[in-house]
Design goal:
Elements lengths: L1 E6 L4 E8 L2 E9 L11 H23 L8 E7 L3 H18 L3 E5 H7 L17 E6 L4 E6 L5 E6 L5 H11 L6 H9 L22 H17 L3 H4 L1 H27 L3 E5 L6 H14 L2 E3 L10 H13 L16
Helix pairs in contact: 1-2, 3-10, 4-5, 4-6, 4-8, 5-8, 8-9
């Protein structure tokens, strides 16, 4: 079957075509307009989606070398995300599918990040997790440990009660005066810094939940006090600061992963979400897995960001179960 995937949850407009689990195309249009504001501006994002969505879909179909009449279904991100952005993708998917007389499939953005691990892109060496497995989903808006029992049954074992890990990276970068998006900048600087140069408190929530707001506050006050003594403190210690805050965030993430594996007995662990591109997190998970005998699944970099291929693969599994949406479906901004 041929499925068109549509992703518009934040500031990337993406369309992909999948033949069953195999990617035929995966096109992403990014929005550079937000860089000067230091973050995504929802109104600008939704306007850009309106401009981009038709040409992005056209390019995706062209690269896939199929006609739109060959499509069997349209899968789209229903949520969570920015409501205005989601409305653009949802409205397009509904009208496009209605015109073709094919079903629509609503997809949860976070579940799609997890199911991305089942994409077949034709490259060698790819392997997929077996159910059940655990997945650490880490992005700018979400941090979760999920037990994945099947493509349709996922149980959230732990999540952040306030800020996400990706937001902690971005806020730390903003405090240091680094450009947006800050997470990749922190990662880049951390490679040449000492992760033990500075110590920041790692919160310890009960169970498998996370909290990153305290770390952000601690980092802010630490730099405020040091800058009073030396206004060049950040510039002099930029790499060490990046490495130290990154080390703390990764330690918090993986401590809970280890606990989740101990509690569930599931020894397969996958990474997903935008922060899964962080080189420090990847290396730390691989090291911990080697020490404990876990099997890991690390996504390719092109699938860490928001993309429609992951929406398409989630749609594929739903298609197999006949799980279609009606034309009255509306997006949701927060996880249900």
């Amino acid at each position: 079957m041929y499925i068109l995937g549509i992703e518009s949850s934040c500031d990337d407009t993406s369309a992909a075509v999948l033949q069953d689990t195999r990617i035929l195309s995966n096109v992403i249009a990014s929005q550079d307009v937000h860089q000067k504001f230091g973050g995504v501006v929802p109104e600008l994002a939704s306007r850009a989606h309106q401009q981009n969505i038709i040409p992005v879909v056209e390019v995706a179909l062209h690269k896939a070398k199929i006609e739109k009449k060959q499509l069997d279904a349209v899968a789209f991100t229903r949520g969570p995300g920015l409501l205005g952005s989601l409305l653009v993708g949802t409205s397009f998917a509904k009208s496009f599918a209605l015109g073709l007389g094919i079903p629509i499939i609503e997809v949860d953005h976070l579940q799609a990040h997890i199911l991305m691990h089942f994409i077949d892109d034709g490259t060698e060496g790819g392997h997929h997790p077996e159910f059940p497995f655990l997945c650490l989903t880490v992005s700018g808006g979400h941090t979760q440990i999920v037990q994945v029992n099947s493509a349709s049954e996922m149980v959230v074992l732990g999540k952040t009660i306030d800020d996400a890990a990706g937001e902690a990276f971005d806020k730390a970068a903003k405090i240091m005066g680094l450009p947006y998006p800050g997470g990749p900048e922190i990662d880049k600087l951390a490679k040449s810094g000492n992760p033990l140069a500075f110590s920041f408190p790692a919160s310890s929530m009960k169970g498998l939940d996370y909290s990153f707001s305290g770390l952000k506050t601690s980092f802010l006050y630490f730099l405020r006090d040091r800058l009073k003594e030396d206004d060049q403190f950040i510039e002099k210690h930029k790499a060490d600061l990046a490495a130290s805050v990154q080390h703390t965030i990764i330690k918090m993430l993986l401590n809970k992963v280890k606990r989740a594996i101990t509690e569930t007995g599931i020894r397969q662990i996958a990474l997903a979400g935008g922060v899964s591109a962080n080189s420090g997190l990847r290396l730390a998970l691989l090291k911990m897995a080697a020490e404990n005998g876990w099997e890991t699944f690390i996504p390719k970099f092109q699938y860490t960001t928001d993309n429609a291929a992951m929406i398409g693969i989630a749609g594929y599994f739903k298609y197999l179960e006949g799980d279609f949406a009606g034309q009255d479906v509306v997006p949701y901004s927060k996880s249900r």
